[in-house]
UniProtKB/TrEMBL annotation:
The gene is coaX. This is Type III pantothenate kinase. A monovalent cation. Ammonium or potassium. CDD domains: ASKHA_NBD_PanK-III. InterPro entries: ATPase_NBD, Type_III_PanK.
Length: 237
């Protein structure tokens, strides 16, 4: 049994695969309470653990404490080249979750791709048809955008609104504006890829993927935990 784990800035996501690569369990937990991870590790007793993290060292230690005795987390980091993908981004600084999502997307189908991960931050990454990670953008995710408006203004606060094409209330204006700010980088990336060649396939992942897909005026595929698909493609030496 193998554990795959992605530690993001908001949540930890994991998957357990049996020896044949079949999925036995999948879960997610907020940083504050990793008991569901500990319970899955106790139940399935993985003898191997592969992970990627963009969270703190302290969270990494708490994750390690959930693993069965004698099992250590093998943290994976971006490389210049791996599983068919070549990295043109600053490999030393690139988030390991972004790299794993790119490897996951590359494993799905041939052709150019845009990989958008709507989590704490929104990352939008471009993968060429020959497997080159051309580059990508980082912007605040939905909650961070709403927080920043609440913190930086005297009168907005953090009301719950609904998405509207032409909002009439402050609450709807904030919600729609922040959501639109997540659509724009994805649409621009697609447009720029189209200027280079055939239209890319758009993959959406992350906690807000469904929300983004609902309002994105483009065809896209939602893939839950795409970074874990990338980890599954890594063969350990
Ligand atoms: N059950 C949930 N718990 C926390 N955030 C959620 C949940 N469902 C959706 N979300 C949204 O997903 C975002 C976090 O997505 P996620 O992919 O887990 O982030 P990260 O990879 O940065 O940890 C949150 O900012 C929130 O908007
Ligand atoms: C951009 C990120 C904060 C996204 O994190 P997430 O939203 O998945 O929690 C993370 O991938 C990160 O810390 N990246 C390092 C900088 C970079 O990718 O260039
Ligand atoms: K992200």
């Amino acid at each position: 049994m193998k554990l795959l784990l992605d530690a993001g800035n908001t949540r930890v996501k994991w998957r357990l695969l049996d020896a044949a690569g079949q999925r036995c369990a999948e879960g997610a937990a907020a940083h504050e309470d990793l008991s569901a991870l500990a319970a899955d590790c106790a139940r399935w007793a993985p003898e191997q653990a592969l992970g990627c993290t963009v969270a703190s060292e302290a969270l990494g230690s708490r994750i390690a404490a959930c693993l069965p005795p004698g099992v250590a987390m093998a943290w994976q980091w971006p490389q210049a080249q791996c599983a068919g993908v070549t990295c043109q981004y600053d490999t030393q600084r690139l988030g390991a979750d972004r790299w794993m999502a790119l490897l996951g997307a590359w494993g799905r189908a041939p052709g150019a791709k845009v990989v958008a991960a709507a989590g704490t931050a929104l990352t939008v990454d471009a993968l060429s048809a020959d497997g080159v990670f051309l580059g990508g953008t980082i912007a605040p995710g939905l909650q961070l955008m709403r927080d920043s408006l609440a913190q930086g203004t005297a009168r907005l606060g953090r009301p719950d609104g609904e998405y509207q094409d032409f909002p009439h209330t402050t609450a709807d204006a904030i919600y729609s504006g922040c959501l639109n700010a997540m659509l724009a980088p994805i649409m621009l990336c697609v447009q720029r890829m189209q200027a280079l060649g055939p239209a890319p396939t758009v993959y959406l992942t992350g906690g807000d993927a469904n929300l983004v897909a609902r309002h994105l005026p483009l065809d896209c595929q939602i893939v839950d935990n795409l970074a874990l698909d990338g980890l599954a493609r890594i063969t350990r030496p």
